[in-house]
Write a structure and sequence with these properties.
Length: 304
């Protein structure tokens, strides 16, 4: 099975601490890297995680709060110092180009590559990226400013050829694509060989959903239903439920409830408030509702 791997670069919230970097992640899909949010220090964490800068061509920003995008300018500058020539694509809510282009013009006005901004509305789910193996769709969230999460979903693959059976029936090469797509094979003698004898079912598509920052928001449940892995913010413990509501954030217990109701495979909680020196209380609250919960931490890698 080809690579579909999540790397946590930072899992803290707005107030810096010595324990956590601000929010940033990288998803490795078949050796293509996709960054999700770019908090301060993201490029340092990229190096610690031994991820290759040259394979990162798309960055997805959930919203324009500093702890989710302050690292973007420095990362773009570093790419220039490294002699990057490949285009870099920034996918973010409306307003990102107006915010960042003046800073790029001032600090990065001689880049050897081009930066393209792709703005989107956060009101409804939108497919904002697609290649031969993956689609990325926005997940509208409810925060203090326009904000969305992202659903990364593999595209269905063709069936797998059973080489021994294809050789046994002497199937011509020009028939293989049809057979991969589900067709039967008819021999020169007129014998019908059913597809199931020649192929195996492909691996199930894998899905990753990223949801940060948001108030407890049941509207996302249908869109993320059944994903293999869900990252959901869990800024506060339940004892701070009122504070969570005031700041449009989620408690760990509420994140567990979202995961349970959506029937996801595994839950990662993060975006921890600086008030918690240890996040065990958050893990216990979420896991009491959804047992398949783990804590995000810097350099954590999860293979789907």
């Amino acid at each position: 099975m080809e690579k579909f791997e999540l790397h946590i670069l930072g899992c803290g919230s707005a107030l810096p601490t010595t324990r956590h970097f601000p929010t940033s992640q990288v998803l490795n899909v078949r050796e293509k890297l996709f960054m999700i949010d770019c908090g301060e220090g993201a490029q340092m964490q990229l190096r610690k995680s031994k991820l290759k800068f040259s394979r990162l061509n798309h960055i997805f920003i959930s919203h324009l709060h500093g702890d989710h995008c302050f690292g973007l300018l420095s990362l773009i500058s570093t790419f220039g110092l490294l002699g990057r020539t490949a285009d870099l694509h920034i996918h973010a809510p409306e307003g990102v180009e107006k915010l960042f282009q003046p800073m790029l013009d001032f600090f990065c006005n001689h880049l050897p590559y081009q930066v393209f901004f792709h703005e989107f509305s956060t009101n409804n789910p939108l497919e904002i990226y697609s290649d031969r193996s993956l689609t990325v769709t926005t997940i509208p969230l409810c925060h203090r400013i326009p904000c969305c999460g992202f659903l990364f979903e593999e595209k269905p693959r063709s069936r797998h050829i059973i080489r021994d059976m294809v050789d046994f029936y002497q199937v011509p090469v020009f028939e293989l694509n049809r057979i991969k797509n589900g067709a039967d094979y008819i021999t020169p003698e007129g014998e019908l060989i059913p597809n199931f004898k020649l192929t195996r079912a492909p691996y199930p598509v894998r899905k990753y959903a990223y949801c940060s920052d948001t108030i407890y928001y049941k509207n996302i449940i249908e869109q993320i239903r059944g994903v293999d892995l869900l990252f959901h913010e869990a800024t506060f413990a339940q004892s701070e439920a009122n504070r969570a509501k005031e700041t449009f954030h989620t408690t760990a217990a509420q994140a567990g409830k979202i995961a349970l109701d959506a029937g996801v495979g595994k839950l990662i909680i993060g975006h921890f408030s600086a008030r918690y020196e240890e996040e065990d209380v958050l893990l216990k609250e979420a896991a009491a509702i959804f047992p398949h919960t783990i804590l995000a931490k810097e350099t954590l890698s999860v293979n789907l």
